[in-house]
Amino acid sequence: MANLNSLKRTGERAYRRVGRGQSSTKGKQSGRGGKGQTARAGNKRRPEMRDIIKKLPKRRGYGKNRARTVDPTKPNAFAISLSRLDHVFDSGAEITLKTLIEKGIINRRQSAKIVGGETSKKFKITGCSTTASARAAIEKAGGTIVAK
What's the whole-model pTM score? Predict the structure, then answer.
């Protein structure tokens, strides 16, 4: 099988002087574009996009530094309002991730966060994070929150 480096030219290479005459091929500007800066020798213009990129500030804001604080593999906690828990659970119930899964409130792979709302029932919450307003409402009703 013939390789590219072993192929031999079978005919003469086409030769044409450029920049001669007014014909349509390689005449007038001779493939060098229009007049002006682009027609001169040493025409090296910097791309505009580079100047735009260089003017942008470095390492500020959401995009650049986000990877340092956010773990994309960790799923977000599912927000559950206290009002919903008030409808589903009885007073004195212990609320854990397992009981939330059994009641069909969250899926198996989710973590839960209890957010604000109204409740008059006394709950014991274990293994779920809570917001400050939810914690205050639970403790006001006489419930307790146990850290993980």
Answer: 0.51
DSSP letters, 13-68, are PP---SS-SS-SSS-TTTTS-SSSGGGSTT--PPPHHHHHHHHSPSS-SHHHHHHH
CATH number of the CATH domain containing 101: 3.100.10.10
Residue 10 domain flag? no
Number of domains composing the chain: 1
Chunk the chain into consecutive blocks of 10 residues (it has 148) and report each block's average pLDDT, rounded to whole numbers.
87 81 70 80 88 82 67 83 90 90 84 88 90 92 86
Q: CA-to-CA distance for 17 and 83, rounded, in angstroms?
A: 86
Distance separating alpha carbons of residues 131 and 137, to the nearest angstrom: 10
CB-CB contact of 82 with 115 (8 Å): yes
